[in-house]
Amino acid sequence: MLAILLVEDSTLIRERLSSMLTELKNVAEVKEAGNYEEALGILQEGKTDVVILDIGLPGKTGIDVLRVINQQQWELKAFVLTNQVDNYLKKLCLSLGAVDFLDKSKDFDKIPGLITGL
After folding, report:
1. Is 3 exposed, middle or buried (0-12, 13-18, 19+ CB in 10 A)?
2. Residue environment code for 73-94, b if the CB has 16+ CB neighbours within 10 A, otherwise e
3. Predicted confidence band at 51 (pLDDT cuts at 50, 70, 90)?
4. Which residues pair with residue 101 across a beta bridge?
5. Which one of 45, 81, 112, 117 is least enclosed by Cβ atoms within 10 Å?
6. Under CATH, which number does the domain 2-116 receive?
7. Would you give the end-to-end CA distance of the chain in angstroms?
């Protein structure tokens, strides 16, 4: 059973994702963070299997969160879900250990399938 952390500054998107994910059979818990600091606080507890994160956060970005995950060598899978879709950001996120780089406007509905496949 998976513990998932959603890192997204939009409450509406967090709520929509959370309701989609809590219905999945392999998801035990969905935690939410609206910014970098909240995300790190939850990640430091060490009970997260999957992170779905946006790049555009207030203050530090989702890329900063990925850098910390990479530096700490936390054993989890990170998915980037963003509107900031370009090849440079995609390559950067994948080089920092993201499993996938998803376009919010096109790939949103793919997330349950990706999580079910873990």
Report:
1. middle
2. eeebbbbbbbeebeeebbebbe
3. very high
4. 80
5. 117
6. 3.40.50.2300
7. 10
